[in-house]
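Hi V.,

Quick status before I head out on leave. The structure for the redesign project is tokenized and pasted below; the design run finished overnight.
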């Protein structure tokens, strides 16, 4: 069906679903995209029939076609209407933008594994995975603290900003992800970005 409202399947706590939720707000697409809570990780969930992978985010476009992956969905939403907001810069800067985006993505991926492990029953959690992800995050936080003064991280909002703030704000969900002490530059950057309305409106539930 053409011209129906798009549906974005999300959960309140999913960091990956938060990324397109932020893009919807930045693009002013609230009227074109309906947020639909999905029941993930539940045997027999009706959501499994909507998206066979059962992951979020998942976008059903207004032509009825469904697609997943936060980066793909964000690109689609950015190009859906109006001027694009998240194009990569031209020339040499493109590689810097891609590098920073990947550096934010690798932090998010690790911290997401960590939070997922913590959502398992205590006796099913792997101490090895928890220690591995904590240690990876510590190294990456040091790296980000050194690089957060990069001009691309201090200009207009980019996908790297969105992915990085999404990863950093998992501090609200992970007790041990206590990254602020010793990282004043990154902490100041996160506080500044957190004030942006699209970021403040999508802060994850505890
Ligand atoms: N690469 C995917 C990752 C999506 C993902 O891992 N989503 C998690 C929530 S943060 C999920 O849906 N998990 C439910 C499951 O694995 O069944 C993206 O960028 O969208």
């Amino acid at each position: 069906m053409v011209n129906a409202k798009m549906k974005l399947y999300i959960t309140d706590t999913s960091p990956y679903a938060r990324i397109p939720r932020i893009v919807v707000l930045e693009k002013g697409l609230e009227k074109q995209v309906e947020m639909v809570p999905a029941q993930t990780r539940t045997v027999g969930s009706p959501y499994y029939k909507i998206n066979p992978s059962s992951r979020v985010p998942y976008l059903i476009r207004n032509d009825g076609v469904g697609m997943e992956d936060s980066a793909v969905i964000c690109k689609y939403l950015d190009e859906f209407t109006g001027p694009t907001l998240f194009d990569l810069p031209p020339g040499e800067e493109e590689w810097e933008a891609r590098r920073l985006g990947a550096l934010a993505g690798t932090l998010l991926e690790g911290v997401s594994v960590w939070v997922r492990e913590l959502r398992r029953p205590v006796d099913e959690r792997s101490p090895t995975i928890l220690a591995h992800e904590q240690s990876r995050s510590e190294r990456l936080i040091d790296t980000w603290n050194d690089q957060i003064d990069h001009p691309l991280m201090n200009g207009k909002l980019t996908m790297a900003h969105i992915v990085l703030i999404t990863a950093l704000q998992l501090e609200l969900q992970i007790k041990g992800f206590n990254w602020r002490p010793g990282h004043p530059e990154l902490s100041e950057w996160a506080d500044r970005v957190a004030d942006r309305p699209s970021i403040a409106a999508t802060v994850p539930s505890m």
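Above is the designed sequence. The beta strands are 6-10, 33-37, 58-60, 66-68.

G. will cover questions while I'm gone.

Best,
W.
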